[in-house]
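Folds vary. Our protein:
___
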Amino acid sequence: MISTLAAAGLALSTIIIPPVADPPPTGQITIDVVTVNGSGCKIGTAAIAVSPDNKAFTVTYSDYMAQVGPQAKPTDFRKNCQLNLKVNVPGGFTYGIAQADYRGFAHLERGSKGSMKASYYFQGMSDTDARSKTWNGTLSDDWQVTHKTDVASIIYHPCGAKRNFNINTELRVDKGTSDPKKTSFMAMDSTDGSIETIYHFAWKKCPKL
């Protein structure tokens, strides 16, 4: 029979302590937009900014909206955006994405549907599981989708490698049985910068060579 003390020691020895991300570096972080493709982010309509504490960066769109209705073009029911970014970080550090918050506004007439799909990955590496969500009309409100990754499952940029960070998003509206004389739309844009997509960094120190 195992003594109470021995059992307690055995239990403690089998506790798995989850890894903890390192604090962000204090040096300056910049992000260069290498390429922009897609009907939802034409040149000049997407802006990137890094937070002062280096904990996140934001993407703000100014012309990203999918819609159906009397004024919409046949191709407007789907809009997408592919961003290829070069994230410049201080030496000795690497990064992953712990969480992504996608936000926007939707106006969906009764009988229509709207959906949002998003994924991100490092160049040359496997794509993340695409996250998607669907909303049914009637709806006229802000929307948000959060893509959160457990600390143990975060994929980090390989130390010493040069791999750009890719972001893929898509908005889609299906008119369904809604009144064809009325407009339904899904937007991930903002004219005043109040609606932003936020990517939260997870930082890790690279091993010294």
